[in-house]
Each structure stands twice: as structure tokens, then as C-alpha cells.
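Next up, sample data:
>
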Amino acid sequence: MALSTEPGYDTKLAIPDQPWNIYGIPANINYFLTTPLVPAAVGGVEYQTGTRKAHTRRRYVGDPAPSNVTAHGYAYIDDPGRKVGNALPGWSFILDAGTEKRQFTTTGDVILLVAFLEDAVKGYTRLYTQGARYKLKDPAVSSDIEG
């Protein structure tokens, strides 16, 4: 089974010189940014093999005649950065530029995300987090935090 490399909603996007990431469709996040983000390099993924020793298996508790399983080999993927199922790591946030509104997920703190986006967004954009709302590059307001 081949792993999909198509960019989708769960594409891990690398933030330059930062240890955290944003997950989302690259074209959607790049609509808001002056410098496009690129998918993070797939590194550290290794195909491993193992051996399972022979053992007995019960069909149910108290099975009077358990079956025998012979020793066999198996293969698995070892990926330290792999996400589990459809769950995306981190927390979600929304960017709203008036004409476009998109949701993403990040593993960074709010303060790191706000600091990155203040310099990276093209123009007036609202950032909705799980707590406060922020106005980024708002020419009408001297404070970046909206109450």
C-alpha cells in the first residue's frame, strides 16, 4: 500500500525556522500569506519488519479448545511524526480576509502563531482562535487585539 502524497486538509506545512507546524490545504493557507508555505519534508519514515512467535489464541473467555497460531513475520511503518487516524494534532484556528475564510490546525502556541502571522499575512486578516480574536494588519486600529 502506497502512502498518499497529494496535498489535502491534513498536509503538514513547515514554518521556516520554527519547531511547530500548520496542517491544512497548502493553497488555502497560501492565499493569506505573502510567502507560501511548503509541505514539510517527509523524513524519519522507515519500513520495519518484525517476527511474531508462535502462540495460542482463544476465541472467547474460557474457550476449551484454543487455536494455535504459527510464527510469522510482519511489516510496519515507523514514523515519529505520524498522526493517528483522522485526528489532526494541535488546535484549530480560522483566518478570515473578508472574501475568504478558512480553518487550519497548528501545533504551536497562540502567541507564536500571532507573531508569525503578523509578519506573514498579505493584508487585513482576522484570526479566530479558541480564545481571543485578533486583527492582523488592521490600518484602522492601533492595537492588534480585539476585545
